[in-house]
Amino acid sequence: TQLLEQSPQFLSIQEGENLTVYCNSSSVFSSLQWYRQEPGEGPVLLVTVVTGGEVKKLKRLTFQFGDARKDSSLHITAAQPGDTGLYLCAGGMTTDSWGKLQFGAGTQVVVTP
Amino acid sequence: SAVISQKPSRDICQRGTSLTIQCQVDSQVTMMFWYRQQPGQSLTLIATANQGSEATYESGFVIDKFPISRPNLTFSTLTVSNMSPEDSSIYLCSVDTSGDTQYFGPGTRLTVL
Predict the structure, then answer these.
(1) Which residues of chain A are under the pLDDT cut of 70?
(2) Could you give the number of structural domains in chain A?
(3) Which domain range does residue A97 map to?
(4) CA 20 to 30 Å from B15, out of A18, A59, A82, B54?
């Protein structure tokens, strides 16, 4: 059972378009991370959000953590081919003292020139 | 953050054999994790490896199949034993430096014939 539901599973867009990836759960998380993974590489951390309602911006990427800390979104403005990759959200469990993360199933994003 | 290296980066093995994957971190960390990832899919946690204690395995993973060593605060190994084609996957190690965020190695791509 996936505690974190990511949508959509796959997204193909043209360069210059905007996109949003969603990460939803019925569970409350102490923190939420977004990673991007390219073929043949490990996931690379993009951002960590810890406060309900928090919004963080990283150049063309905007991350939001829901007020109740159950959901998050990643918005990319004017997508570029370099944004292509597998986007993964991962939640830190409030009741888990070992620091384990729950990963979503991932969203494969393809940006074509 | 942390810089993590893994060896080997990829390997092709015969069924019935074993492979040991090494994970080296550039700083001392308490918590290390081992994941398995099918191509294009999300990460599945195999076990948590803390220095000085036995590894903690997730449901569906057992020590006889995936023995783990954690001899010090910068190094860990994962062995995939008595391999079958179903073990073909990407194996990733990660470290937790703050209790909420994990940093990943580049992964080891394993193919079992």
Answers:
(1) 1-2, 94-98
(2) 1
(3) 5-112
(4) B54
A→B contacts (Cβ < 8 Å), by residue, are 30-31, 33, 35, 40-45, 48, 50, 86, 88, 90, 92, 98-101, 103-106, 108
Of A30, A41, A103, the CB nearest to B43: A103
**Contact flag A99-B99 (C-beta cutoff 8 Å):** yes
The CATH number assigned to the domain holding A98 equals: 2.60.40.10
All structural domains of chain B: 21-105 (2.60.40.10)
Residues B46 and B49: their CA atoms lie apart, in Å, by 10
Under an 8 A CB cutoff, do A45 and B103 touch?
Answer: yes
Measured in angstroms, the CA of B41 and the nearest CA of chain A are apart by 7
Spell out the per-residue pLDDT of chain B, length 113, in tens.
789 999 999 999 999 999 999 999 999 998 899 999 987 788 999 999 988 888 999 999 999 999 999 999 999 999 999 999 999 999 999 998 776 788 999 999 999 99
Whether A76 and A61 have beta carbons less than 8 Å apart is answered as yes
